[in-house]
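testing teh design pipeline on a random one, pls ignore if ur not involved
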């Protein structure tokens, strides 16, 4: 609990014993879907015990549990992806049933670069209606080859329509990349996360997706992938300051401000739509300077708490807090530019706004 409110982590991934990845390897190798996954109860319990103890250490009450994105296998043949997706979602559902007060499901979709997105809709509906999940992971580049249309393209509209119909939230989290240029980079999927998430944000912000789909809610992981580098004329330099009632708008300069003699300079400003009810960003970033800047740029009102515990940050100590780097709540407490209302919004209120189906589970 934080200030009397449940701490809800919107960015968690399943913890599984080796049997799970062994099943995936056999599925890819044997090229048959007639076998089903079987994991001994003791092995599953051990994986869950470690996961829950790490949540407790970081003061996380509830975690939205999704597949490990690097293991979604979207680059495989459709029949393999479909079997693996249903196996993964059934496993997530079983973990949620075992710990109904701690875990809520986020679905994997059977995405494939060689199929239309409509092929993923039955599984989304099954997970929301039958398994009680509250959203689904969306991989903007399922083939890992940058050939799938951008998230502003009509290719995605059937998924957006179904998500609206179900009140389900879409969580943008890429998987691996097969770009040969990055093969020498360890854990190159992290680079792919940055580029694909940042591109998704730009395409969604500079399109009419949310005008077409006003009930659609999208959460982009890792603070939206990348920070904004340029000041935007007319926008706030510090969205958090604006939320606190301070003036931080970027003003015109040079010719636009009349500071240069000569030919007149005109500029037509596009009205920027308010996406604060549609487009959110999670706090899953472990560098405190990156996370702090992201909160200032996005604003506390659009940030949802996310940690990825346990994951890539669990074994790295944050020297700023003296805690593991994925103890994101400790980082938020460390930031003196936040007040308690900002922190409560991020760890509780905003998560409920971004995932309305949570209401049927906890509230």
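output:
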């Amino acid at each position: 609990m934080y200030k009397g409110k449940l701490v809800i982590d919107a960015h968690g991934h399943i913890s599984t014993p080796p049997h799970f990845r062994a099943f995936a390897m056999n599925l890819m190798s044997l090229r048959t879907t007639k076998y089903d996954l079987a994991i001994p109860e003791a092995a599953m319990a051990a994986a869950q015990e470690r996961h829950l103890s790490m949540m407790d250490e970081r003061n996380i009450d509830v975690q939205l549990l999704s597949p490990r994105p690097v293991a979604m296998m979207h680059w495989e043949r459709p029949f393999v992806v479909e079997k693996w997706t249903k196996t993964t979602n059934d496993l997530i559902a079983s973990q949620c049933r075992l710990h109904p007060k701690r875990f809520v499901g986020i679905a994997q979709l059977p995405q494939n670069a060689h199929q239309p997105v409509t092929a993923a809709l039955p599984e989304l509906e099954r997970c929301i209606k039958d398994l009680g999940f509250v959203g689904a992971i969306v991989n903007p580049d399922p083939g890992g080859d940058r050939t799938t249309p951008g998230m502003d393209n009509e290719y995605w509209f059937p998924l957006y329509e179904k998500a609206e119909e179900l009140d389900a939230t879409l969580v943008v989290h890429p998987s691996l990349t097969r770009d040969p240029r990055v093969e020498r980079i360890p854990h190159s999927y992290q680079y792919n996360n940055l580029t694909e998430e940042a591109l998704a944000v730009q395409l969604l912000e500079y399109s009419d997706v949310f005008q077409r789909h006003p009930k659609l809610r999208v959460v982009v992981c890792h603070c939206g992938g990348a920070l904004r580098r340029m000041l935007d004329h007319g926008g706030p330099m510090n969205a958090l300051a604006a939320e606190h009632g301070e003036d931080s708008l970027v003003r015109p300069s040079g010719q636009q401000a009349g500071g240069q003699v000569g030919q007149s300079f005109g500029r037509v400003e596009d009205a920027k739509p308010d996406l604060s009810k549609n487009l959110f960003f999670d706090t899953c970033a472990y560098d405190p300077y990156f996370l702090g800047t992201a909160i200032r740029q996005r604003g506390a009102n659009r940030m949802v708490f996310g940690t990825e515990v346990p994951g890539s940050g669990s074994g790295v100590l944050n020297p700023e807090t003296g805690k593991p780097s994925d103890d994101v709540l400790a980082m938020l407490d460390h930031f003196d530019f936040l007040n308690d209302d900002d922190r409560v919004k991020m760890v509780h209120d905003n998560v409920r706004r971004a995932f309305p189906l949570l209401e049927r589970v906890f509230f």
